[in-house]
Amino acid sequence: MKIKTLVKSIALTAGLSASFASQADFLDFEIDETPYGGGIVQADKLNGGYTEIINFDDEGGFTVSAFASMNQLFGNGGTANSSQIGSVIGANYNLYATFTAEGTVMSPGAMGSNSSLSADTGSFSLYLDADQDTFANDVATLDLANTADDMLLGSSQTIGQNVGLLYGFGGVFDFMFRDFELTEDGDTYFVSPTPFYMNVRVDGDFDNIPLEGEQQITGDVSAVFDVPEPSTIAVLSLGLLGLGATSRRKS
């Protein structure tokens, strides 16, 4: 992007992030890089680039598949890069993510945008590539090559609050994936907090695109982890209380 466009994109991303009122500040996590020649590293954000295939139908709907390289870790509120926090990511191993979404397009869009995208369903999966050789044969079908050594670290099949905004010069997106669960391999990589955060928020930017047919998009992407909003915790608590009451009645 040109500098002026980049500044606009950063400003819009900041405004979009602020609109997600329940999103907390950067939350720390620790990863164990000792199997890859590193140590225990504290970080708070993953960052990288992505390639995405988005298909628009003739009825206001869209589907998305994306492959993202996540080979940058940040700490200290997202200000310290991988080398500054002592990480060997990108040098000794890679992280990558796949994500999907399906939803509707609205024109004119929300927040003063030309058009906005809202997903009804979606998924996010995070992998570790020890041999640093995985790539996408076909992003549309998420057909990946050289995955034999890869480990699934965690995934979510539930998309929460989300929006994509398209302006004349490009766009930004902010998707929250809920119920993020680590695998056994994920538990050995993300060593704290325990239990791990339940939400992962994925945001980034993209170039201007026509809202028709199949489009390929590239851009920057970040991911941070989060805890459930207080309202969600309250609902879960009420549900557990209800289960307890039902159990007592049965006994």
Mean pLDDT across the residues is 85
Helix content, binned percent: 10-25%
- Secondary structure: number of strands: 15
Instruction: Tell me the structural class.
Output: alpha+beta
N-to-C CA distance? 65 Å
Structurally, the number of domains stands at: 1
> What topology, given as strand order, has the largest sheet?
3-4-5-6-10-11-14-15
Number of helices: 3
Shape, per Cα inertia axes: globular
Order of helices and strands: HEEEEEEEEEEEEHEEEH
Parts with pLDDT < 50 across at least 5 consecutive residues: 1-24, 230-251
Strand content: over 45%
- Sheet with the most strands, sense and barrel status: 8 strands, antiparallel, barrel
Radius of gyration: 19 Å
Q: What layout of secondary structure does this protein have?
A:
Elements: H1 3-19, E1 29-32, E2 40-43, E3 45-56, E4 61-74, E5 94-106, E6 115-129, E7 135-138, E8 143-145, E9 151-156, E10 158-167, E11 170-178, E12 181-182, H2 184-189, E13 190-192, E14 199-206, E15 213-226, H3 230-250
Quick gist of this model?
With 251 residues, the protein is of the alpha+beta class.
How would you describe the overall organization of this protein?
The chain has 251 residues and is of the alpha+beta class. The model is unreliable at 1-24 and 230-251 (pLDDT under 50). It contains three helices and 15 strands. The termini are far apart. The chain has one domain (3-250). The longest helix has 21 residues, at 230-250. Helix content is 18%, strand content 48%. An eight-stranded antiparallel beta barrel has the order 3-4-5-6-10-11-14-15. Strands 2-1-13 form a three-stranded antiparallel sheet. Strands 7-8 form a two-stranded antiparallel sheet.
